[in-house]
UniProtKB/TrEMBL annotation:
SUPFAM superfamilies: Chalcone isomerase. This is Chalcone isomerase-like. Residues 20-185 form the Chalcone isomerase domain. The keyword Iron-sulfur does not apply. Keywords: Isomerase, Signal. Coiled coil: none annotated. InterPro entries: Chalcone_isomerase (IPR016087), Chalcone_isomerase_3-sand (IPR016088), Chalcone_isomerase_sf (IPR036298). One of its GO terms (molecular function) is intramolecular lyase activity. Residues 1-20 form the signal peptide.
Length: 186
């Protein structure tokens, strides 16, 4: 009887729907759907600078249990989502931050990516406001789709571009090591 009860509890635990998590007022869904593919939530954290909370960064991927390098190199779809939680984040600051991140993630070799980076930065041309949500979807073999508040703004071609962008958060020299760890669910 004890084994039967244990088996039922285990079954219920594995079949119970995952619940949304909330972090700094941002609801993080247990999964999202992009490109007709279900992406599972890995983790999320708050990007802070000088004790100011700026955005919630979250990671979703098709495959579970991958480390940062495997996510960067996988042939599965993944997404980095940024939910803006501070008025300190402006269009100009986002552009400067992405520029700086690309410089670091590419080892200072931004030139081969420059034209595509400029096209990507146009995503931040409009005002950036609290509660804006940016979702960058990595599609291996294609490139990267960028969404603002659910609206597709651009497709940037190339695995080199999508990998470099995701390396800003998941690479060997991430913008924030603590955020990287949290996005990976650690």
């Amino acid at each position: 009887m004890k084994n039967l009860i244990f088996a039922l509890v285990a079954l219920l635990a594995t079949t119970a729907p995952a619940k949304a998590e909330t972090l700094s007022g941002v609801t993080l869904q247990p999964s999202i759907e992009v490109q007709d593919t279900n992406l599972n939530y890995y983790g999320a954290g708050v990007r802070s600078k000088f004790f100011m909370k700026l955005y919630v960064g979250s990671l979703y991927a098709e495959q579970s249990g991958l480390d940062a390098n495997a996510i960067l190199d996988t042939d599965g779809i993944s997404a980095v989502r940024l939910n803006i939680i501070s008025g300190m984040i402006t269009s100009d600051r986002m552009i400067d931050t992405i520029e700086e991140g690309f410089d670091t993630a590419s080892g200072g070799n931004v030139a081969p990516l420059r034209d595509r980076l400029d096209r990507f930065l146009a995503v931040f041309d409009e005002a950036v406001e609290i509660d804006d949500q940016f979702t960058m979807v990595s599609i291996p073999g294609v490139g990267l789709e960028a969404y603002k508040n659910g609206q597709l703004l651009t497709l940037i071609e190339g695995d080199d571009f999508r990998r470099t962008l995701f390396a800003i958060w998941l690479g060997d020299k991430p913008a924030d090591k603590k955020l990287k760890s949290q996005m990976l669910g650690k």
